[in-house]
Design a protein that fits this description.
about 150 residues; about 40% strand; alpha+beta; globular; 6 strands; Thiol Ester Dehydrase, Chain A
């Protein structure tokens, strides 16, 4: 169910932010999610040496996680009853990153019933795009209201 820009939508967006913060995997990253509007999400995170591969830059898993999460949450703004699942994700690396603040910007592209398409991009502290991705997301049987971190 899509929601318009009312208090119901705002409540859903704040609950999605709580869901992100409550996920155990996000305890491994210095990151935060902000839902910026319907079909739009932003994740900011700090890259440190802890995320490096052997050649001294951020490993691709960091790119994937942040691109996937930003696109996922952008799509889940349009769904208030169910948790979405990533069914596929394409990603492109355009620049290595070694340290500093990185922003993942997610944007819903299409789909309003069962399958959703969203894209995202990563921007480094200098404003350069360092990665881009597109994902497809499917409604699951998992109720959002049943998840401990989701409190609308």
């Amino acid at each position: 169910m899509a929601m318009s820009g009312n208090s119901g939508a705002e409540g859903h967006w704040r609950a999605l932010e709580g869901l992100y913060a409550s996920a155990p995997v996000n305890g491994l990253f210095d990151s935060s999610l902000e839902i910026t509007g319907e079909g739009s999400a932003r994740i900011t995170f700090d890259v440190t040496e802890a995320a490096y591969h052997a050649a001294g830059a951020a490993h691709g898993t960091i790119y994937f996680k942040m691109l996937d999460d930003a696109a996922f949450y952008a799509a889940n703004t349009l769904v208030t009853d169910r948790f979405l699942l990533t069914t596929s994700f394409n990603l492109h690396f355009t620049k290595p990153v070694r340290e500093g603040r990185v922003t993942a910007e997610g944007r819903w592209v299409s789909g309003k019933r069962r399958v959703f398409v969203a894209e995202s991009r990563l921007v480094d502290a200098e404003g350069d795009e360092i990665g881009r991705g597109t994902g497809t997301f499917m409604k699951s049987r998992i109720s959002l209201s049943g998840l401990p971190g989701y409190a609308a």
